[in-house]
Amino acid sequence: MEITYYGQSCFLCDLGGTRVLFDPFITPNPLASEVDLDQIECDYILLSHGHADHVADAEYLLKKTGATLVANFEIVSWYQNKGIEKVHPMNTGGKVHLPFGTVKMVNAVHSSSLPDGSYAGTAGGYVVESAEKTFYFAGDTALTLDMKLIGDRYHVNFAFLPIGDNFTMDVEDALVAANYVNTKKIIGMHYDTFPYIEIDHIEALELARRQQKELILMEIGQTIEL
């Protein structure tokens, strides 16, 4: 599968030809100024929670691409009031079968509200099972023992984990989370965008190496294949 990084926690995953975009925050992000929003095509947009640094470009991309929105009930309802019709509401613990596989919404320990202050339900993450890979997109979260349930039930090939600290886990907690979900491969997210979450890349990579984990810090605009 191909993965393209657009900054903060925004990734486009090509799952056997179905394009799934997570948490689009691109145009307000100065680090992503080279990204052309109009070149992004997707079939599904998955939102982990309602904060602006995860949903800023969601409405525009949903309307431009005709993608289906997958998010919790409260977030979906908010976007329906903005004219978005192709939606699939979920809530924590639920699973949906989509053309590329299954998506299960799992717990995340984090606050959540929408850009206008509206209630956005609870924050979440996703476990995605496809014919190619099974992966965990944690969203914004603290380290939590609930992650062990993921490792017990799924063979996780890799995990998107926040590593920026202050608002979420730091690198050390993310390495523990990787143990909990039983994966050796981490794609870092939610770091460097703001001064509060700037990290030392060399130190982070060394911490991962010492614990025999592969930490991938993608460049914005980069595409990799896993």
Automatic annotation (TrEMBL):
This is UPF0173 metal-dependent hydrolase FHS90_002771. Residues 7-190 form the Metallo-beta-lactamase domain. It comes from the Bacteria. InterPro entries: Metallo-B-lactamas, RibonucZ/Hydroxyglut_hydro, UPF0173, UPF0173_UPF0282_UlaG_hydrolase. It comes from Rufibacter quisquiliarum. GO terms for molecular function: hydrolase activity. Belongs to the UPF0173 family. Keywords: Hydrolase.
